[in-house]
Amino acid sequence: MQKLSKDELIQLVKAVFPQLPQDNKLAIIVDVPNSPQEDKSSWAARRQLAYEWFCELQSGLSELGLSDVSLVAYPSVGMNNADLPEYGHAVSAIPDLSTSLSAKVTFAEIFTSHQLFLAPTQYSATAPMKLNAKKYGFRAATMPGFALNMMPALRIDYGLVNERCQLMKQKLDAAVGADVFFRADDKECHTYFDLRFRPGHASSGRFPDPGTAGNLPSGETFIVPYEGEKGEPSQTQGVLPVQFDDEIVLFKIQANNAVGVLTDGVKSREQADYLRREPAYGNMAELGFGILADFGLEPIGEILLDEKLAFHIAFGRSDHFGGVTGAARFSSPKTVVHIDYIYSPKIQRRISVSNLDLISKDATRETIIQHDKYLIF
User: Fold this and answer.
1) What gap in Å lies between CA 254 and CA 192, rounded to an integer?
2) Burial degree of 146 (CB within 10 A; 0-12, 13-18, 19+)
């Protein structure tokens, strides 16, 4: 897959981060394996790509309107959306192992001294970057699992992507609930999601405002279902099907939590055990509306891109998206997760979204998805 040219990379950065007067420094942050056994070829290729981007952007400072570009590495945290370590390490080249890192600097200092961030990491740093963006006022594009076969997603019309994401946000902002009807093989399943007290969020691959962070490539609008923190129970409930390998697992949903598994099988037992060990995993953390399948993109087996293709539901951490379930709800930092399950016929082949209706305060219904296809675009 052809890499971005230097000019394409510079234009991408300028499109993702429309220039603001305070913009001065950009940092590329990457995670580094803690052992040779943890590393993999795709991770090594991503680190090499990050280094190449660092070099190209360093030589394009005048075009970017910046004074400097930094390269920051940190030891792998081993889980998606877990908190970052206290320290990062300023580097001029990325080592193969974290044991070779030196010149440490606190992330607080890094976040204070840089206004823009690209984060092509192995393990998603989206949650901590979102939370820290709000705290420090920087802008960040997180790119967990980014690979060369995602390059086409960086070349699409992000103006049109933004229009569609904003339209979806308007519809979510007006909704108090979502009725989702699934067909899992020959079984009909239904889950109602309580959307009261929550705004939608458009993630269109552009970050014009300080204090914002999100994925790149992007192309989704998402909302966190109400989690019951306002003194009245969440009304999210139903039966939610998820396909793991060749097995369909049916989760029992009550008060916005997966509280049990209704099926039997290897994967069903694994998921039931997971919920017993880590109840916070069962939090319904996100309804996401990915739209990039309409732009001719195909799933590649990486969540960063695949979740942008279709409707998806996330379990686990939600505080980085505006919810209330954070790292403290999990048993340890290493068990913090935010996991997306994507309802595309090319990913969960035995499950389809028959109908997804948004319900407004006056009980008006609008069908957003029917037979896995959007009706509103």
Assistant:
1) 10
2) buried
pLDDT of residue 252 exceeding 60, the answer is yes
Sheet (strand 311-316) strand order:
201-203, 220-223, 284-290, 311-316, 338-342
**Is the overall model pTM greater than 0.85, yes or no?**
no
Q: Which residue from 284, 310, 287, 285 is spatially nearest to 297, judged by alpha carbons?
A: 310
Token duo for residue 332: 């340890």
Give me the half-sphere count of Cα atoms (radius 13 Å) on the Cβ side of residue 247: 15
Compute CA 322 distance to the chain's CA centroid, rounded to the nearest angstrom. Answer: 13
- Rounded (10°) CA dihedral 337, 338, 341, 344: -140
pLDDT in tens, 164-218: 999 999 999 999 999 999 999 999 999 999 999 999 999 998 899 999 999 999 9
pLDDT in tens, 73-100: 999 999 999 999 999 999 999 999 999 9
At what angle are helices 41-58 and 6-16 packed, to 10 degrees?
Answer: 90
Domains of the chain in sequence order: 6-146 (3.40.50), 154-374 (no CATH)
Q: How many angstroms separate the CA atoms of 100 and 323, rounded?
A: 37
